Amino acid sequence: MEPVDGRRAVDGGRPTLEAVAAAAGVSKATVSKVLNGRPGVGERTRARVREAVRDLDYAPSTGPRDPDPAPAVHVVFDSMVSLYALQVLDGLLSAGRDLDAEVVTSALASAEAAGPAPLGVDLIERLAARRRSGLVVVTSRLAPGEVAACRRLGLGLVVVDPINPLDEDVVSVGATNWAGGVQATEHLLALGHRRIAHAGGPAGSVPARERLHGFREALESAGAAPGPVLAAPEDPPAFTVEAGRRMAARFLDAADPPTAVFAASDTVAVGVLQEARVRGLSVPDDLSVVGFDDTHGAMWTDPPLTSVRQPLHDMGRVAMRTVLQLARGQSPDSHHVQLATRLVVRGSTAPPPGGPPSR
């Protein structure tokens, strides 16, 4: 048998993995990562390995295989029971088709579960063992140990709408939540409303806090008195219709109830609409309501919901593109991407009863 000279070594007439590694100037482990599409290898190194594979006409002993298999990305949702999740998933799948990537999904909770389970280091280790190219986590909590496990195992990580504060090095994709809160509140102020309440999301949610800060900023800039603010309880730990109803009941039971409510999500807004209907209030004649997300269902509420549109489909596409960049060993275009929101005005908002005309 010829000696390993960096260009060709044979085993029964076939080039070996050692020969590919020597020709590319890397370890056998690195060659194996490239052949199996695993993360943790820079793009230039991948190119050298692929060139060596072609030059040596190398084929694994188990038979010919594609030296650059399609990457597989695992996507984890807190749950799949919301239109929000489906629209983000649609963007992820669309980008996966365009980029020839396999998309595998799972959820941490079902419709019947009381709340999502933690992601867990065990799941991350299983994904790495299955040679997933990257992990996208959507609106789920991440513990420091889980982030560290992704780094240790070379698993690219992108978080969409992170619920809890994360290390600055964690790549995230979201929307301009603060600006959206300002847009919603300024719309209600322009209609003449001054008693504006905010039905928030879970107290620990970063997007919910950003929307609340935008709400307060708009009121302060207009010289309006701060409106009542309620946060959804941590249990259930989500933006829910039930939480919207409970918060609306407390607002509407007040001695001086609001004439408008800015809800931190469309699902919370639906709860506000339901509670108003039960009390015989007309929306928007007696109460104006603004949601956040502008999911597909917003136009089918009664009346159609005015809402701040998050570009959910685009958020999914950006997350997929970014996690594949990380899998190739490339730096992301930005560690913290925030896509622009815009207000979509429909039938759930109008000037307050007996109030001044809108500006």
Automatic annotation (TrEMBL):
<keyword id="KW-0804">Transcription</keyword>
<dbReference type="Pfam" id="PF00356">
    <property type="entry name" value="LacI"/>
</dbReference>
<dbReference type="InterPro" id="IPR000843">
    <property type="entry name" value="HTH_LacI"/>
</dbReference>
<keyword id="KW-0238">DNA-binding</keyword>
<keyword id="KW-0805">Transcription regulation</keyword>
<feature type="domain" description="HTH lacI-type">
    <location>
        <begin position="15"/>
        <end position="61"/>
    </location>
</feature>
<dbReference type="InterPro" id="IPR010982">
    <property type="entry name" value="Lambda_DNA-bd_dom_sf"/>
</dbReference>
<dbReference type="InterPro" id="IPR028082">
    <property type="entry name" value="Peripla_BP_I"/>
</dbReference>
<dbReference type="InterPro" id="IPR046335">
    <property type="entry name" value="LacI/GalR-like_sensor"/>
</dbReference>
<dbReference type="Pfam" id="PF13377">
    <property type="entry name" value="Peripla_BP_3"/>
</dbReference>
<protein>
    <submittedName>
        <fullName>Substrate-binding domain-containing protein</fullName>
    </submittedName>
</protein>
